[in-house]
User: Fold these one by one.
Assistant:
Number 1:
Amino acid sequence: MTTTTVTPVVASTTNATTASGAAHTAASSIHNASNYRRSYASTLRTWTLHDCSALTNVRSGDEMVALWGRWRGTRGKPVTTTWTVTPESLDASWTSFVNRWNTEPGFAEVVDGRETDRRQRALGLLREEVCRLLWDQERTSCLVHHLEGCPSCREYGRSRLNVDAWNGVIARQPFTEEERFCIGRYRRALSEFIHAAETPALRPHARTPSQYPECPRGVWREAPLYPPMAGTQASELDNAWRGATERCDSWGPT
């Protein structure tokens, strides 16, 4: 009598079904993740560049576009497309700006503070460069000390020269081309800093703080790298600079 053996195929069928289900689940997960990324990316570009329709408590569209440009400038970023800046990235930046303006009552002050800090840092570096260049040429005084008061010169007990004494220093030893170029940059930075200090900043219309209880008013804490001379106000620096402009005009490019 011959016995026939039947090989079960249930396990193989089950394994194939499980593998097919896993593949379907993986494909579904990838599809859902892709949809989520597209959905999330779209929220980053809710509003196109310069679309002011969603802004609240604004003065004018032009002022808001200008404030956005200043905000971009505090981080050294352009406001137009370049080979690295796409229209989509500008839309995302504008959307972020709209959200922050609508939810942060102190956002304009934050921009003002960042601009001031950026200008002070740039001006401080130029002051140090001018001082270093002039002392490298073995001059008896520093232009920054003459105009504003230089901490480095004060540290070494150098007195501030009056107009006649300073003009005598320059007559005996004219500036080099490198010094003239650096002094020109310093003059422009100082002029811009004084002008910005005297220009009223953009302020939003009155807001109702209770509308955004979860967003406390932001406070910008400045930490200038190069503080002005004690007791010196912007108006005093302006007067000193204007008084020195005529005698500085021939020293470097404007």
Number 2:
Amino acid sequence: MDPTAPNSGDANGGAAADATAPSNTTVTLPPLTLRDVPLLPSAAAAATDPIPNPISRHPYFHPPATFYISPGDVSLRHAFFDLASASPFPLVAYRRAGPRAGVAVDPARARAAVVTCGGLCPGLNTVLRELVVGLRELYGVRDVFGVAAGYRGFYGPDADHVRLDPAAVDDWHKKGGTVLKTTRGGFDLNKIVDGIVARGSFGFQTAVEIAQQAIDAAHVEAVSAVNGIGLVKLMGRSTGHIALHATLSSRDVDCCLIPEVDFYLEGKGGLFEFLYERIKQKGHAVVVVAEGAVK
């Protein structure tokens, strides 16, 4: 009997009541090999009393309970399996990246370094910018350095280490290549992924691209006015995918409101207080709203 074949009878051994009803099958998977990040398990084990994630205390960003990654969450290397194979392919898993509810290192004492290595790919400067801004403004890490010229910059002169902050990387997302420069080689690291093929629905990328043009226009208007606010409403109904991706691609948006994340207007930590502080700091603000976010 094939262990992967669905049960054709009901719980009492009788005939199936409905041939069109979905059936549940219990399958035993082969052993799973977890390829862990070097030094990460030991660092986590050394932190006997993890520090609450600073994001949970952020005055404006209020993450839901499902925002943080569980320590047991993993990502499988292969998404497809042949359950009927006589010799199943060994399953390999990697620890899932993402924010944890507790951090092992006190952000006040942490020092971070960012580096670009190997060949160029689109979006490197955007990634660098968001790493610096996220470490500084979400986690409170004050010492962030950019390592120039790839891995060899780690053992180069001190001039190869540049202190970075949000002001220093403010316009990096508008530049091509990598501001930190890169070299090939210099460190024995296996190459895992060279390219990623993204699957999406037809027209989505075009909608995001056109939405960015509207955001760029709103940004120009907001910057040109005293205490200007640029407001862009994008289609999406009950989902904020277009608004979110257009915001991430633009990098000029201060606040993105989508139906999936609740928000409030007045009071401590509300939208009005955030806009007041942002305008007081920058002199302008750009807000993107998915059409279903205000219903």
